[in-house]
Amino acid sequence: MGRVTPSADLSRALRPRLPSPLQEVRDERFARHGVRLFLKRDDLIHPDLPGNKWRKLALNLEAAAGRTVLTFGGAYSNHLRATAAAGRLLGFPTVGVVRGDELARRPLNPSLARCAADGMRLHFVDRTTYRAKASSEVLEGLLGLFGDVVVLPEGGSNALAAQGCTALGREVAGEVDVAAVACGTGGTLAGLAAGLDPGQRALGVPVVGGGFLGEEVARLQREAFDGPAGDWSLEERFTFGGYARTTPELAAFTDGFEDRHGLPVERVYVAKLLFALTALAEEGAFAPGTRLAAVITGAPDAPLQESSVSR
Ligand SMILES: Cc1ncc(COP(=O)(O)O)c(C=O)c1O
């Protein structure tokens, strides 16, 4: 494995707040089982590249070295937004390949409008093409359209992203026993686990079902670290029906967590993580004395205006 910290140049340009704060909070639902709860505030790393976005993008942007970065996402992708913002801040061109060709005929939603305002070229593709985005046929088509570009996968999860996320593990080394993170594509968990010390473990909470994530994390670890790295497991019971789905129970829990701890909770990922950890603590899944960190991988969206930015 090569160097796993971004260069001083990138850090100077973006000034991320690192290490992110580790805050202990008092929560009766954990305390009565002897569990100490900590919030690893990755949401405070950077206003435009919060949470795992900085950690996953930094080494990739450095490797791209100013060339156009092309990447993929859905209509509300945080990853597209962060890539577009990085392009604006660092002055490199970006292309976002967006799932859903019907979106090309509608006004941009606030998230895509922000991407466009940050200079990202948006390219809409139908769902069949999007599903085949890693195929050589689709990639060659995109390279034909956009020329010499650096391609980042959906969610930005590749070997460099996982390597970047090892810093998250190193930052909590010696501080906690279990570090838990919500998972979409698995890149953050793959790196977090690799960065932990022996005796610490990582717990991933997928926000989408399907049972594919364990193999995906293992694959990313093979690519990034040449094999399995660190002690990690998945807790797959808390998807609440799938990506961006919620239930009244989850919404009420999240409102309550915000009130209790004064933490604005991102709803697609972080809410499910916090719900899962609370349920697990109540089930007695953590031994008394466990120091448990919930990685706050994102912040709720700032209010955005509906817009019809032209493209
Ligand atoms: C706020 C937030 N938390 C967690 C994740 C999951 O990260 P990963 O795709 O690396 O599993 C994402 C997606 O990138 C995210 O936007």
TrEMBL record:
It holds the Pfam family PALP. Its cofactor is pyridoxal 5'-phosphate. Residues 20-298 form the Tryptophan synthase beta chain-like PALP domain. One of its GO terms (molecular function) is D-cysteine desulfhydrase activity. InterPro entries: ACCD_DCysDesulf (IPR027278), TrpB-like_PALP (IPR001926), TrpB-like_PALP_sf (IPR036052). Transmembrane segments: none annotated. The modification N6-(pyridoxal phosphate)lysine is found at K53. GO terms for biological process: alpha-amino acid metabolic process. Gene3D superfamilies: 3.40.50.1100. It comes from the Bacteria. This is 1-aminocyclopropane-1-carboxylate deaminase.
